[in-house]
Design goal:
The chain has seven helices and two strands; from the N terminus they run ββααααααα. The longest helix has 21 residues, at about 70-90. It has helices at about 20-35, 40-50, 55-60, 70-90, 95-100, 125, 140-150, and strands spanning about 10-15, 15-20. By secondary structure, it is mainly α. About 55% of the residues lie in helices and about 5% in strands. A hairpin with a 2-residue loop joins β1 (about 10-15) and β2 (about 15-20).
Length: about 150
């Protein structure tokens, strides 16, 4: 389910071929703020696409978006995540089946370093929501559950 999962066959999102959903997230971030600084972020978008199969590099590139506004990004991030993950999980019969096999399980990204996309704790503690970092957003888990419901 990870945004760092590298697809053997790229999937299409917003007219581009991607190997990871991390690349799609960072591309959307660059596009959103590219309206303000078109030239630099356009080059950044090209670099993200060129590194679509290297999610760590995509994440690093996404951190260099100029004039990044967390409030503006937060207002669209969840919508983008759901659309992107829908494309990812409907592009592959196997991924779709794996997601649907989770039935009604509450999904969460177990990441001790990320309380936005995840729950702010590692896998050993993530199984019990009582252990989750206070105020965590779990964007990935919540988005996956919305996609599961939609398909």
């Amino acid at each position: 389910f990870s945004n760092f999962y590298v697809h053997a066959e790229p999937f299409q999102f917003e007219g581009v071929q991607l190997q990871t959903s991390e690349a799609g997230i960072m591309l959307a971030k660059a596009d959103l703020f590219g309206m303000q600084i078109k030239d630099q972020n356009h080059d950044l978008a090209k670099q993200i696409l060129a590194n679509s199969g290297n999610p760590r590099k995509c994440k690093q590139l996404g951190r260099s978006v100029k004039d990044f506004n967390p409030t503006a990004w937060g207002s669209v991030r969840d919508f983008i995540a759901v659309q992107l993950l829908y494309s990812k999980f409907t592009s592959s019969k196997l991924l779709k089946e794996v997601l649907l096999c989770t039935n009604e399980l509450h999904l969460a990204e177990a990441s001790p370093d990320d309380a936005v996309w995840g729950v702010g704790v590692g896998e050993d503690l993530a199984r019990d929501p009582k252990n989750w970092k206070t105020g965590c957003l779990n964007v990935l888990g919540e988005s996956l559950m919305k996609v599961r419901q939609r398909i």
